[in-house]
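>> received
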Amino acid sequence: MATGGLTFFGQGSGAVTYAPYTDPTFTLNEMAGDLWYVSAPVNHDSKALADGTGWLAQVTPDRLLAVVSYPDLDPAAAAPGEAEVEVYTDGEYVEIEQQGALVTLAPGGMSVWTVRWKLRRVPGGTAIAAGSADLAALAAATLAE
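>> returned
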């Protein structure tokens, strides 16, 4: 995603962790049960890892809401050093990433994991700010479609 947006997702269990090199100004903040990241300049690559609740949302500077839904992951199923949700930035873009469970596949085996993307325009008058109840409601309504 382009910088200048707003990322949020349902907060699962456990604390947010940050990669060792993360800029101290890069933070995810809990508000009303969701975790929020307001895109801001960083001095170097920065990454946060968190347990989510099966969805991620990003609002662009052009008032577009991208909502991603996927099967919720038990924190114990994540790959070592990883988590269900990763938010990364290098100051030029923001990456929001959902991750599935670490599984071992036999040769010729397969795994199915469904991810759904929805894009909606944020209605005029909707405040685009961390903790916005209107944005959280819009994301919830989009997920329910």
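>> Residues 133-144 form the longest helix (12 residues).
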